[in-house]
Amino acid sequence: MSALKFMRPEHWARIEQHLANTRGERFAFALTKTLYDGEDGPVLEVIDIVLIDDADTQPNHDGYYLSENALDRVHNQARATGHGLVEFHNHRAAPPAFSSVDERALAEMAPYAVDLLDGTPYAAAVWAPGTIRADWWRPLPGAHVERGQFRTVTVLGEHLKVLNAPPVTDERFTRQIPLLGPEAQAAIGTLRVALVGAGGTGSHAALALAYLGFRNLVVLDDDHVETTNLNRLVTADQADLQAPKTIVARRRMRAIDPRINIRTLPGLTHSGTHPELRDVDLIIGCVDHDGPRHRLNQFSIDTRTPLLDIATGVDESAASVALGGRIALLLPGEACLTCQDELDSAEISRWAKPEQAQALDRAHGYGTGTANPSVVYLNALAVNAALAELGAWISGARTPARWLDIDLVGTMKSPGTRIGPRRTVPRDPGCVDCAHLA
Q1: pLDDT score of 235 more than 60
Q2: pLDDT band at 224 (very low <50, low <70, confident <90, very high)
Q3: Which helix (H) or strand (E) is 311 found in, with range?
Q4: Quick one: 128 and 178 in the same domain?
Q5: Parallel, antiparallel, or unpaired: how do β-strands 57-60 and 63-66 relate?
Q6: Average pLDDT in the 73-88 region?
Q7: Bridge pairing between strands 307-315 and 322-330
Q8: Could you give the CA distance from residue 201 to residue 229 in angstroms, rounded to a whole number?
Q9: Cβ neighbours for 63, distance < 8 A, ≥ 6 positions apart
Q10: Which of 11, 74, 292, 391 could bridge 287 with an S-S bond, Cβ 3.0-4.6 Å?
């Protein structure tokens, strides 16, 4: 997957306002950092923007062009800072596309810019009201360049926007679109999501994502279906015993929506590079241990990818059983799970040990591996609460809760199920996981 990510909504707002408020053509540039450059294309983060003054834009018989002085200033700024470039200009009619004039100019500019910026990917985008088209170029051996189209161009903030999402016209979403809106439904169909964990909570998430219209997913899990899973694994039944959880999840999701694209992979490891998590738009964590949860926290930070973490649990140590969970929606640049003091360092340390060392720990009573109690309605409640906040974030209907606590017990005076938001703490400038990106 290739993606262009605006981490600061004001960057895109200023570019769009600049391009929209004119009768002719205008130009803007984004300076970018390469987060990942994989087989399917680069993943770029917008670091800063440059708006081109009208005095540097001149008309001719073909359209409009930039002055050499303006281009030199932008190119020199990118080269001096070690950043890549994305050029934006406007067309008045949708859908946006590169004109023949654009193509002739890019045939010269893209290879020149890639070479000038020492192989850093170059990109260009055409804006039209409500949408954009964005392509990238990167070097190939022999002084050639490869070209591709960004799968997603996203703006992250209080509201998630996908700027290049094609409209969705499927009749199956007729009763959903009035609630979410057509732009949100288009975004849902375009976003690439990694679902990590296909067990109790993950199976509920898998089905719900398919029903909502997410059509590009990566599902990670190592486990196989066991008899003790059948009380809560909603993707499996008796005939699925010993089948991989990812495979049964994929089969059920495709039964819901045959157009869905699902890649199944083994589960998370403490030392693997996991390139599949470096080119997604959203990570949904449905893991039952703070070891893999901490790993997802690290991937979210390093790849600038939002993380929706779903946790449930039962505590039988107290006189009355505690039964509940929590939801965390973590955005890049904000407090991570470590900042929130939400992770058990002992669990993380044990998970990272070799299997022989883990076996020795279990022999001494640490991390015994005893399965925790689990029940289907708690998993379903946690997942659906999480997806309600995800829907609010994508649709922009309201500000999503960044943290929800779930309590299925209540108090002696006021028993009953409670779901409530928790005020999150600010980012810790000394955090061992995310301070390096400050």
Answers
A1: yes
A2: very high
A3: strand 307-315
A4: no
A5: antiparallel
A6: 97
A7: antiparallel
A8: 11
A9: 25, 99, 101
A10: 292
Q: Are 134 and 4 in contact (CB under 8 A)?
A: yes
Q: For the purposes of burial, counting CB atoms within 10 Å of the CB of 211, is it exposed (0-12), middle (13-18) or buried (19 or more)?
A: middle
Of 142, 162, 182, the one marking the end of a domain is 162
pTM, two decimals, is 0.94
Structure tokens at 78: 């990118």
Residues 143, 176 within the same domain: no
- Cα–Cα distance between 136 and 134 in angstroms, integer? 7
Task: Quote the CA–CA distance of 11 and 151 in Å, as a whole number.
Answer: 20
Which one-letter DSSP state was computed for residue 26? -
Structure tokens at 124: 């260009």
**Amino acid type, 423:** R
Q: Give the pLDDT band (50/70/90) at residue 314.
A: confident
CA angle 333, 337, 343 (to 5 degrees): 160
- Say yes or no to pLDDT of 364 above 70: no
75/85 Cα distance (integer angstroms): 8
Alpha carbon distance 210, 167 (integer Å): 18
Q: How many CA atoms lie within 13 A of 133 on its CB side?
A: 13
Cα–Cα distance measured from residue 256 to residue 359, given in angstroms and rounded to the nearest whole number: 41
Contact 39, 73 (CB under 8 A): no
Give the Å distances, CA to CA, from 342 to 309, 346, 426: 11, 12, 14
Q: Are residues 113 and 215 in the same domain?
A: no
Please state, in angstroms and rounded to a whole number, the distance separating the CA atoms of residues 195 and 331: 17
Tell me the H-state helices in 374-426: 376-395
- Per-residue CA distances from 425 to 157, 280, 428 (Å): 17, 26, 8
Phi, psi of 277 (to 5 degrees): -95, 0
User: Which amino acid, residue 171?
Assistant: E
